[in-house]
Design brief:
Blueprint lengths: L3 E6 L7 E5 L4 E9 L8 E8 L10 E9 L4 E3 L3 E3 L4 E6 L4 E9 L28 E3 L13 E4 L4 E5 L5 E3 L21 E6 L2 H7 L7 E5 L2 E6 L4 E7 L98 H18 L2
Parallel strand pairs: 10-11, 14-15
Antiparallel strand pairs: 1-9, 2-8, 3-6, 3-7, 3-9, 4-5, 4-8, 11-12, 12-13, 15-16, 16-17
């Protein structure tokens, strides 16, 4: 922890003066110097602690009392502890005394007084230790910060480090963006498996220095010799994950018919015939034929006076065109008998038409 100056006074003669009021636990000492240029009057000094809550001198803790400090001399008290609430007072018999108090914190905190502190080969550990870095906006970057200075940028919510006089670079946290593809590497040498061992120790004991390209199984993992490291390294399981199912191959040709297998054994002997079952019983006798009797013919019934129902309508006859007789002047030209008959008929019609 850094040492800090906690108080400085040049009190008047024979006056009780507060040198330091403690607000936390510290490990301190007081140095006093005699500023007088003459040996007389003699300088005597007193230094004491008034603990918190003390009200009488009997409760004070004196570091020194009426200690002589000669001309041109100074002295430093032994180291003593103060805690929160303690007050440290001083008193001198002349006005030529100068008091100064220096001390360090009694705490696990580093740099608690905002004093610049440089660590060399130091380790900070413990679950209660906290390290806070400088933080602020981009505009609040310290112009006097040296290269390597780390701070938290509140504009972008990330850590940044000063990498040049005027350059700041983001400190990557977690996975950063994918970088460009590197150049094609040299063709690697193949690996051949030369044997297996139960443990790495067994492999090293058998073959302390390996050969590039030769591998050895330890369990399911393959160990190979790394020439750049001069040691064996585990490159993982030899058996990779199961690949995807391949496509079905073509159906193979039908094979030739195999030979006929042996028969199921000889045919067994015929079993004996079973006995005939009982008949259904004797046939019953035929019954006698019945007598045939014809009854007498009954008398004729009286004529019915009830009209029977109308029969169904008969089918429609063919259509006949009416014939209108006329007398032709040429009837006499017809054969004789027909002509006479027609003429007679015509005369009768004419007679009927005459009023």
């Amino acid at each position: 922890m850094p040492i800090s100056r906690l108080g400085l006074v040049n009190p008047a003669a024979n006056t009780d003066v507060l040198l330091y009021g403690a607000t936390t636990s510290r490990f301190v000492s007081v140095t006093v110097a005699n500023k007088s240029v003459t040996a007389t009057p003699l300088l005597k000094v007193s230094i004491w602690i008034v603990p918190e809550g003390a009200t009488v001198a009997a409760q004070y803790a004196y570091i020194c009392y009426n200690l002589n400090v000669g001309l041109g001399q100074s002295f430093e008290t032994f180291r003593f502890a103060v805690q929160n609430g303690d007050d440290v007072y001083v008193r001198a018999t002349t006005a030529n005394a100068s008091f100064v108090m220096n001390g360090i914190l009694q705490t696990d905190d580093a740099n608690a007084d905002s004093t610049v502190q440089t660590f060399a080969n130091k380790t900070i550990r413990g679950v209660n230790n906290t390290l806070y870095v400088d933080k602020g906006t981009t505009a609040q970057r310290s112009a006097s910060a040296e290269v390597g200075y780390v701070r938290f940028n509140t504009d972008f919510d990330y850590l940044e480090v000063k990498t040049a006089a005027t350059s700041w670079t983001q400190v990557p946290i977690g996975a950063g963006p994918t970088g460009p593809t590197g150049p094609q590497g040299m063709e690697g040498s193949g690996v051949q498996i030369y044997g297996s061992y139960a443990t790495e120790a067994a492999l090293i004991a058998a073959i302390p220095t390996g050969v590039v390209g030769r591998g050895y199984l330890i369990g399911q993992n393959l160990w190979v010799w790394a020439s750049n490291l001069q040691q064996y390294v585990n490159i993982g399981p030899v058996l990779g994950p199961t690949g995807p199912t391949g496509t079905s191959g073509p159906t193979g040709a039908t094979g030739s018919t195999g030979p006929t297998g042996p028969s199921g054994g000889p045919t067994g002997a015929t079993g004996a015939t079973g006995p005939t079952g009982p008949s259904g019983g004797p046939t019953g006798p035929t019954g006698p034929a019945g007598a045939s009797v014809t009854g007498p013919t009954g008398p004729a019934g009286a004529a019915s006076e009830v009209t029977g129902p109308t029969g169904p309508t008969g089918p429609t006859g063919p259509t006949v065109t009416a014939y209108t007789p006329s007398v032709s002047a040429n009837w006499n030209e017809l054969p004789g008998t027909i002509a006479v008959a027609l003429n007679q008929l015509a005369a009768r019609v004419k007679a009927l038409e005459t009023p």
